[in-house]
Write a structure and sequence with these properties.
Structural class of chain B: mainly alpha
Shape of chain B: elongated
Mean pLDDT of chain B: 90
Number of helices of chain A: 5
Helix content of chain A: 55-70%
Oligomer: heterodimer
Number of strands of chain B: 0
Number of strands of chain A: 0
Radius of gyration of chain B: 15 Å
Order of helices and strands of chain A: HHHHH
Order of helices and strands of chain B: HHH
Low-confidence stretches of chain B: none
Largest sheet of chain B: none
Number of helices of chain B: 3
Distance between the termini of chain A: 20 Å
Strand content of chain B: under 5%
Strand content of chain A: under 5%
Helix content of chain B: over 70%
Number of domains of chain A: 1
Number of domains of chain B: 1
Largest sheet of chain A: none
Mean pLDDT of chain A: 86
Structural class of chain A: mainly alpha
Chain lengths: 141, 83
């Protein structure tokens, strides 16, 4: 697990993986992909870091306390975005009825609430995946 | 009945999918079974792509890799052979 070539290749690949994950999250409503797939890609980049450089350094880079906070606030963000629909006088989580656009292909900011919802779902899925990996990778005998 | 070339590709891939999922049942080495599961999800992603649903293809590829990595982490912590 401490191979020289593995570490150098990881240095090249990791930023591209993270950026591609956030790209898929942010473009989830106008192009193929979505917040779930993008969140998994972001989580996999941190899992790659933990696998190559060791679980201890991975936990220094992204502690479990921060993961718990991100997970909780991602869910809370989803709820807040749903309540925005109620405040506009429409049902919970409504987008078109509340007066926002439904989005058109190729235009990033035309999504209304959907793109903001996607950010919450994306970071929540990413932190869940990383928490699962930490729980399964712990040395416990 | 008229078949396009994508239909023939889907037939070949579905046949490989059946072979991969059946062989997962009978492989005794769990690491090899996990690798075959990775093959399964890759073929499934290709089938979604040929059926014009790139959304599901991206999700299937990402989720398949993720579950493969998690199962491999479990195998390295526990026994590799099936009892």
């Amino acid at each position: 697990m401490r191979d020289f070539i593995l570490k150098r290749v990881a240095v090249i690949i990791l930023p591209l993986m993270s950026i591609y994950g956030f790209y898929v999250i942010l473009h989830g409503h106008v192009s193929p992909g979505g917040s779930f797939a993008g969140g998994i890609i972001v989580g996999l980049s941190f899992i790659t870091y933990s696998t190559v450089y060791g679980l201890e350094r991975g936990k220094v880079k992204l502690p479990e306390r921060i993961l718990t906070l991100v997970e909780s606030y991602g869910t809370l963000w989803y709820g807040i975005m749903g309540i925005v629909g109620i405040l506009k006088g429409a049902p919970f989580l409504s987008n078109k009825l509340a007066g926002f656009n439904l989005g058109e292909p190729g235009s990033l900011t035309s999504g209304g609430l959907i793109s903001l919802l996607g950010i919450g779902v994306g970071i929540r899925v990413a932190s869940t995946i990383i928490t699962l990996f930490y729980a399964m990778g712990e040395e416990e005998s | 009945m008229h078949f396009t070339s994508a239909d023939y590709w889907i037939m070949v891939l579905l046949l490989t999918l059946v072979i991969a999922s059946l062989s997962m049942l009978f492989i005794k080495d769990l690491l090899h079974a996990v690798i075959v599961f990775g093959v399964y999800s890759l073929i499934m992603a290709l089938i979604w792509l040929l059926m014009n649903t790139p959304d599901l293809a991206i999700t299937e590829a990402a989720a398949g890799i993720c579950t493969t990595v998690l199962m491999m982490a479990v195998i390295f912590r526990t026994s590799r052979k099936e009892e």
